[in-house]
Specification:
Layout lengths: L8 E4 L2 E5 L5 E8 L5 E7 L16 H17 L5 E14 L8 E12 L5 H9 L3 H15 L7 H26 L1 E2 L21 E2 L24 H16 L7 H26 L6 H17 L3 H10 L20 H20 L5 H11 L7 H12 L4 H10 L34
Antiparallel strand pairs: 1-2, 3-4, 4-6, 5-6, 7-8
Bound molecules: adenosine monophosphate (AMP) and magnesium ion.
The site of adenosine monophosphate has 16 residues, from loops.
Length: 439
């Protein structure tokens, strides 16, 4: 093998951060599978690279378990993502100050082997552009198009314009999936944005339990909440604008870049409408359905309702049977129930009226809703339980979780404990509701 690490830059938390690079990612090579797809194999946490700067190039077991489990869970949820092939503990200790509060401690080191057709990020284009290396930038663009977007035909400026539009459309698709399943990436810096529109770099991510568009799992982001759940579509647009700016010297005209950014807006708007229709079980999303969904989200936030449980209960109950009792499992704060239940009743009445004008049979509706509203997601506290056990030498919970997450849309009798609300103990526990970038 001739392993390599690659060099890239990035905008972090809204500011240009200069050169970053694969500080702890080492690519081993590429394999072509039986159906001709090319996969790059990359070790994360295997030690220093030319771009490690002052850091150790290592990764700890807790964050490696989180990356391994979540990337697989996302794949099975149908969300574009890098995947994980293996997870090993290295037997070495790694020192981390988990909360950046002056308490460094030794932790178990680990390595995930992750897999994707390409690990090229927005930041790979930003770096040469920032250095005025326009020729290198152009070669990287053409290489990426040829290797990773072979379906794009044409030459020169035309194919470059098509390519940027495609990157924008794929990013929109990815973000719409995140919003559908309640995933919060936590560190949407441009160095963590894949040019293929894959979810990449699982760090202080989290999953929505009680619906709250302002929630961010990342303690480093607690003050400004730049990467909060509800802002992810806007942040992706901002990141694409950074990419467009970086690409401009290789484009000659900014018109195709502006067109690409507009394609993001259009693709996201369309995908959002498709999400609304699918989550509510409607054949199509009409303009008034956007308000219907918005009102539901506002109610869920005010009432403190579990997003996953709510939508799954909505999917599983026949329209005529829907009452507030259908959602008994979804409340986090029962003291809110007496005051909030009336609004739910009103919303359900509106929803039922809307369903009456939808041509779909109730079986078809149920089927479609169950395919859009997962029963199982990788709730933060589930991953943390697997981590706690693994730290005691018992890896069985990792396997149990992986198994459940392989069929996230199926009811899995006997595995209800993986579908429950966040327990009280997880409210303020490290790893469950608060995560730092230290990994
Ligand atoms: P992240 O916030 O994890 O996306 O990382 C941002 C940058 O820091 C990337 O260039 C990483 O490769 C680098 N980095 C993070 N942790 C380490 C580490 N332990 N050793 C070397 N580089 C690291
Ligand atoms: Mg990163």
């Amino acid at each position: 093998m001739q392993p390599w690490a690659s060099n890239y830059g990035g905008h972090q938390f809204g500011h240009w951060a200069g050169q970053l690079g694969d500080g702890r990612a080492i690519s081993l090579g590429e394999v072509v599978d039986r159906v001709g797809r090319r996969w790059e194999l990359q070790l994360k946490g295997a030690g220093p690279t030319p771009y490690s700067r002052n850091a150790d190039g290592r990764a700890v077991l807790r964050s490696s378990i989180r990356e391994f489990l979540c990337s697989e869970a996302m794949h099975h949820l149908g969300v574009p993502t890098t995947r994980a092939l293996s997870l090993v503990a290295t037997g070495e200790q790694v020192i981390r100050d988990m909360f950046y509060d002056g308490h460094p401690a030794a932790e178990t080191g680990a390595i995930v082997c992750r897999v994707a057709p390409s690990f090229i990020r927005f930041g790979h284009f930003e770096l040469p552009s920032s250095r005025g290396e326009t020729d290198l930038l152009g070669r990287l663009i053409d290489f990426t198009i040829r290797r990773d977007f072979p379906e794009l035909r044409g030459e020169g400026a035309t194919v470059r314009a098509d390519w940027f539009g495609e990157v924008c459309a794929r990013t929109a698709t990815m973000i719409a999936h995140w919003m559908r399943v309640g995933f919060v990436h936590g560190v949407m810096n441009t160095d963590n944005m894949s040019i293929l529109g894959l979810t990449i770099d699982y760090g202080p991510y989290g999953w929505i339990d009680n619906f709250d568009p302002d929630w961010t799992p990342n303690t480093t982001d607690r003050q400004h909440r730049r990467y909060r759940f509800g802002q992810q579509p806007q942040v992706a647009h901002w990141n694409l604008a950074c990419l467009a700016q970086a690409l401009a010297p290789a484009f000659g005209s900014i018109e195709p870049l502006q067109a690409g950014l507009q394609r993001y807006v259009d693709a996201y708007t369309a995908a959002d409408r498709a999400n609304i229709a699918a989550k509510l079980g409607l054949v199509e999303c009409r303009d008034e359905d956007i308000t219907l969904m918005q009102d539901l989200y506002e109610w869920m936030a005010a009432a403190g309702i579990d997003m996953t449980i709510f939508f799954r209960s909505l999917s599983d109950t026949a329209a005529v049977m829907l009452t507030p009792e259908s959602f008994s499992d979804a409340w986090y704060d029962l003291t809110r129930r007496p005051t909030q239940e009336a609004s739910l009743r009103t919303w359900l009445d509106r929803y039922r009226v809307r369903l009456d004008s939808d041509p779909q049979s109730s079986e078809k509706r149920r089927e479609a809703m169950r395919a859009a509203n997962p029963r199982f997601v990788l709730r933060n506290w589930l991953a943390q339980q697997a981590i706690d056990r693994a730290n005691e030498g018992d890896e069985s919970e990792i396997h149990a979780l992986l198994d459940v997450m392989r069929q996230p849309y199926d009811d899995q009798p006997g595995r209800e404990r993986f579908a429950g609300r966040r327990p009280d103990w997880a409210m303020n526990r490290a790893g469950c509701s608060m995560l730092s970038c230290s990994s």
